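User: Here's a chain of 434 residues. Predict its fold as tokens.
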Amino acid sequence: MRRLPVAVPLFTVLFFIVSLTGNVLIADPTFSSLAFAQKGKDKKDDNDEKNELKGNKRLREAVSELQTTTVDLQDQINTIELLEGPKGDTGPAGPTGATGPQGVVGATGPQGVAGATGPQGATGSAGADGTDGATGATGPQGPQGTTGSAGADGADGATGATGPQGPQGATGSTGADGADGATGATGPQGPQGTTGSAGADGTDGATGATGPQGPQGDTGPAGADGISASCSVADDGKGTAILTCPDGTTASLVANWDGFLDSILASEAEGDQINAWLGTPDQGWLLCYRRSTDGTSTSTFHSQCDNKGATVTIITLTNGKKIGGYAASQWNHTGYTGNSSNFLFSLTNNFKHIPPGTNTGPYYQYSHLSFGPTFGGGHDFYTNLGSSSSSTYCNFGFTYQCRVGAFGSTTCRNDFCGEYRPTLADVEVFYKGN
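Assistant: Prediction complete.
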């Protein structure tokens, strides 16, 4: 509800009241006087001044009453509240105005400060193996092994008997004596001449006949029992002799040794250093996978190295770096495994990188059917064994400590593996052999 506005034109009210009393009252700003007329004009007596005065009196009384009534009516109007009527229908929309001219493009604001790098998300599942590329060029030949110690000198044979002397040559004939000259007087003795050069050595005499055989020596102790002639022995090419007998029994014959048997990537001294970092100087290791001979398929690596316990991986890169890692848990493509005894190492820098790095989570090694040996949650080092190895990458310092620099820095990364996406030259994986 709303109140009627007070500013109702007064002449409208006056017109309404006069009309109800049978008179007509006209009030308009455009006219200079008011005219009143009564009904029955035909009975007005224009000549009767008395009647005119009476009419004027009645008119004044009517105006006075009208003014009183107007005041009362105005008071009533001020208190009237009107109910709001129903809303009318919406009129049709007007025509769309013409499109205004396009405004000038504002100047580009200054670039905001880069936000902090968010935490790294979990590693997504590996994509399917790509087709193998062409085989890479053969890597450089490994260093020559150390020369073995010389064997003991054999005993000297007995000296043969001296052969018979050859016949003496015939004596030449004596020349005829010349006639004796007259004896001259003896002159003074001349100086002694220089000693002549030695004559040439004579040819060696023929070798004498072989002397008689000496007596037989005492019989030596019996040797160890040999392998039955009915069993066969074959070398598996990885330092293990496989014995196979007709009854179907087999046995692996491994000599007692330490270090990395059959490695072409690590020297004996480097193998001793890895064992020293492990705290097991006498540990022997057997090869289960070599990329250059077993191929570039990750399934081959897993079929030959999974479920063999702890392993050591040795890697050479085409940029000259020689690195690797110790995996305390067996490979079995079950995701993150390992423990705090895992470590990575650089044979180039002769340095052992231990956890934790920047992150203290349990991301020591990552085993997946589509991955080669992979370490750390960054990953610190991920191997793609494919022929191109274009997806092998190094994000060092996330799980394992940097030697120099900090995680995410070029200094730390290049110190370990030389570049972000290095290329594999060769990979070897070993498991405990004794």
